[in-house]
Structure formats: C-alpha cells, structure tokens
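call fold(seq) -> tokens
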Amino acid sequence: MDSTSLEDLILRPVNNHVEMGISDLSTLPDKLSGLSYYAELFETAYGDNEITLERISESMASFVESITANQSKFDLVQMELATLSGQEQYGLTLFDSKYNCRSCHTLAPTIYYGGLGSATFVNIGLDAVAKDRGAGAVSGNTADDGKFRIPNLHNIAITGPYMHDGRFTTLEQVIDHYSHGINTSPSLDPRLKDVNGNAMRMNISADEKAALIAFLNTLTDTKMITDPKFSNPFKIR
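ret:
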C-alpha cells in the first residue's frame, strides 16, 4: 500500500520484517513508555506526557523535515558566495553537457525526506536480466523491471554504497558503470541507448572521471553533516 504522507511513511520501517519488525504498531506507545526519558520529551513537545502513535509519527516526521542539505559548495556557488575550481567546473560541464547527467539527476537543494529526487523510476542497465524487479514488482508490468527511483545527488560523495543494492562502494565504480558497464535490457532507459538501441558506451576518460568526481564532491553539505542537532541525542542528554 502506498503512503500518502510522511507521517504514515515514517512508521513503515518500525513494523517492516526486515527492519525493526514490530508486528503490532499499537504496542509501540507502551514500549516507549517503558523508557524513562520519553515522558519528559513528550511533555516538552505536547504539554503532557501521553505517548500515542499519532504523536510518535508526527514527532519523527517533524525531525526528518528539519534535515536539509542546502549549504554545499555547489549551493554557495549558486548564491555567488563561492566559485568552482577549474577541475570542478570541467566536471559540471561534463555532467550537464557531454554526459547529460542532469536529464535525470536534480541538483536542487533538498529537504532530506524528499531527497530521493525525481519521482521517475528508470532502468540504468545494472543487469541484463533484473535480479530485483524494482518498480516491476509493484506494478506487475515487465516493462518496469529493473526500474528504480532517481536520487537527488546532494551528499552523494558520503552516502555510499551506491545503487539500490549497494553493489558499488565508490563513485569511481559508479562512473565506470556508466562508462562501459551498462547492460542492454528491454526496459533500459532510452537515454542510455546508442543509435542502434544497444547499451551506450560512454568511454569516460580518466581525466573526465576525476573531474566528475571533483564536481560531485562539491555537493557535500559539510554544515549539515556536522550540525550538533542531528547528532546522537543520547550524547546531548
């Protein structure tokens, strides 16, 4: 079943069998009530210490919505508060023009819960035959096999491993995939096909790869990742 709000979505991992696995969400308030520090936190937030599922999801959603990535070097360049180096600028030019990466990936500052980027699902040729059907498993349509949602690239340099299954551990490996590792499949995105309909071979050079990675590093928001309010709350207490 699809979620129509962050408040609904936020509790999905709690009762997902491969994550927290609490089979009955109605038991969650009592579980939190058994931890002494939660009564004070709910009192501060709501004026009384009653713990309910609605308050749990509302509080968690409010926290997630507060996480923003909008102070990277690239963001500051857009505000004319910084400039890219020659290599970074070359990487941006390759990203925008020669390899047309921005036709899929947004570079806009993001609220983190919305940081998945585009609502579009695409097959980028990870496998000739999809090991994980992705969107196809939901829609039941084989034309959607191997399609996954396109991510926003803010903080991409520090959010590995990459791809839906974590098969790549470095950005170098990701770029190598686009350079010469794309697999042909019926649902492969047209932007990744050559004029004959086969998987594109971009043959990205070593210098281009270095420039692309230098640019991708400018998308790291060091202010956000070092902000004390997003650190371990138990250390603060």
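Residues 73-223 form a domain with the Cytochrome Bc1 Complex; Chain D, domain 2 fold (CATH 1.10.760.10).
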